[in-house]
Amino acid sequence: MTGSDETPSFRLAYVPGVMPDKWVRIWNERQPDVPLILTQVPAGEAAERLLGGDADAGLVRTPVDRAVFSAIPLYTEQTVVVVPKDHLVTAVDEVAPEDLADDIVLHPLDDVLDWQTLPGRPALERPATTADAVELVAAGIGVLVVPLSLARLHHRKDLTHRPLKDAPESSVALSWPEDAKTDQVEDFIGVVRGRTVNSTRGRQQPPARDRSTEGAREGARRKPVPGKSAAGKSAGAKRTGKSGGGAPKGNRRGKPRRRS
User: Any idea of the CA torsion for 184, 186, 192, 193, to the nearest 10 degrees?
Assistant: First the structure.
C-alpha cells in the first residue's frame, strides 16, 4: 500500500494524569474521517516518542525543550499530598510543608515536580514509579506529593489527599516537534484552544470576502439616479400644494341667498 492510499489519522500521545476525553470527542465530531489514535506514554519518555515519530503531537508535562519542540501551555495543576485517611493532616483543609516535617516523603523516580528541597524526611530508597509510591503510602510507610490528577488516577479507598501550599506545580502543554507541524496538528490546536468550527483561524474555512469590492458594489447600488430625486421633490411639492394649500374646503363660506 502506498502512502497516498493510506487513511489519514492523527496520533496523539498523552502522559498519565491527563484526561483528553473532551478534546477527543470534539475531534471525532469535527473530523469523522480522520481517526484519532491515543497512546499513553510515561512522562519521562514523551519527548523521545515525539522525536521518534511515534506520535504527531503530545499532551505532555512541562518544561519542554523549546529548541526542539513547539508547545502551547494548557493548564497548571494543584499540588496535593496523598496520605492515609487516619493521618493527622486530614484535620485541616490545606497542608503546609512544615506539617510534614516528621513524615517520610516518598520521591518516586518518575516524579514530575521540580523540587529544590523536598519536605519531610527522605526514604532510604526512591520508589520506581508513582504507582509503587502509592502502595507504600497505603502500607503506612510514608506520604506522597503529586499533582492532583495523579492523586485521582491512583485513588484508593484507604487514602485521601489535601492541597499542599508553597510547593512546585506541574503544568500540561500540547507539544509537537518544531519541524513537523501537520495539518492535523493545526486542527487539534483549534480544538484545545476552544475555536469554533467557523473560526477564522481554522484551516478549512472558506476564503474571506473582499470587503473593499463589496463596498464598491454597495455604493453603486445606493447611487441616486440623476433627476429622480428632484422630480420626486417637485411632485411632492405639487401634492402638498394641492391638498394643503389654502383653507379647508369645509370652512369656506358662500354668498348669502336672497330671500324672496
Answer: -160
